[in-house]
């Protein structure tokens, strides 16, 4: 399961993500759509730990190893 609680990302004084809450069950397939520059890639960078959010939590459970 992937859970994001109150994630906020600001760049250059502009909110890309403002208090987002998402819960995705393990094994689910989800797509994110939106215009250019709206924070889709930034959102995934928060999930992978490449960047930190201003506030909020990212919780990942039931990790599966690829063999």
TrEMBL record:
<protein>
    <submittedName>
        <fullName>ABC transporter, ATP-binding protein</fullName>
    </submittedName>
</protein>
<dbReference type="Pfam" id="PF00005">
    <property type="entry name" value="ABC_tran"/>
</dbReference>
<feature type="domain" description="ABC transporter">
    <location>
        <begin position="18"/>
        <end position="63"/>
    </location>
</feature>
<dbReference type="InterPro" id="IPR003439">
    <property type="entry name" value="ABC_transporter-like_ATP-bd"/>
</dbReference>
<dbReference type="GO" id="GO:0005524">
    <property type="term" value="F:ATP binding"/>
</dbReference>
<dbReference type="GO" id="GO:0016887">
    <property type="term" value="F:ATP hydrolysis activity"/>
</dbReference>
<dbReference type="InterPro" id="IPR027417">
    <property type="entry name" value="P-loop_NTPase"/>
</dbReference>
<keyword id="KW-0067">ATP-binding</keyword>
<keyword id="KW-0547">Nucleotide-binding</keyword>
């Amino acid at each position: 399961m992937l859970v994001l609680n109150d994630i906020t990302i600001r760049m250059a004084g502009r909110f890309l993500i403002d208090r987002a809450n998402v819960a995705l069950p393990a094994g689910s397939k989800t797509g994110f759509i939106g215009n250019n520059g709206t924070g889709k890639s930034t959102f995934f960078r928060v999930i992978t730990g490449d960047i930190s959010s201003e506030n909020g939590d990212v919780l990942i459970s039931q990790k599966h190893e690829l063999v």
